[in-house]
Amino acid sequence: MTERSEDQADAFFHALADRTRRDIMRRVLAGQHSVSALAAKYDMSFAAVQKHVAVLEKAGLLTKLRSGREQLVSGDVQAVRSVASLLAELEQVWRGRIARIDELIASDPVRED
Amino acid sequence: MPVIDVQHDLDKLTLTLVADFAAPVERIWQVYADPRQLEKVWGPPTYPATVVDHDLRPGGRVNYFMTGPEGDKHAGYWIVTAVDEPTSFAFEDGFADLDFTPNRQLPVSQNVYTFTAHDGGTRATYVGAYESAEQLQQVLDMGVVEGASLAINQIDALIAA
User: Of the residues A97, A112, B43, B103, which has the fewest C-beta atoms closer than 10 A?
Assistant: First the structure.
């Protein structure tokens, strides 16, 4: 992997390593939302939601557009679907499987070596 | 944390994960050789897998479906291409109709899983390769990975670690 794609992967994982931010991504990939409309969906302050949006924006996962008093947020499908992020997403599926194998073997009766 | 290395090859569309398990090679092999264990680990809790056919021999088929929260079913198949018990096997992984007829319109990946003894446990290397970015995208748009975003939730702790 190149340095740049490593940095991208870091930003991507950091951005998505949070439940609220993943939820925001699901919403803004489905359609444009204003930050205030997003903020209304969560039990947290407008400022907190705005911070989450900023992290996602920094990772290149969404774009913000000012429209009058509102900031409109759209998921960047292209960014989300770049090969790097596709592999990152697939990695998550695999990590899930590996974690479950780990759990499964941890539940084995203790062996007598 | 069992995953020790990850490589994304953007040119070859290949994902490689290396994980260390605290169990002997034979025990990890069993996870794949036993359909009841395989289904425990293949799908995320929200999309549990049911393994219907399981023949882990060269040319053999493994057929499974995953059941979503709405009762929606997504079928997949493996065609086993090579087996060297208990240290490695290779298979083609694809989508299927609910009668397990492979759906050739949908992407297929070539996978090689290798298990070697390491520090009293097992080092597992998982390699999966797709033919094109479009295929990879399709995979993620489809069943396997409907679970993906859900699986992400489940492994928050891993990412954060």
Answer: A112
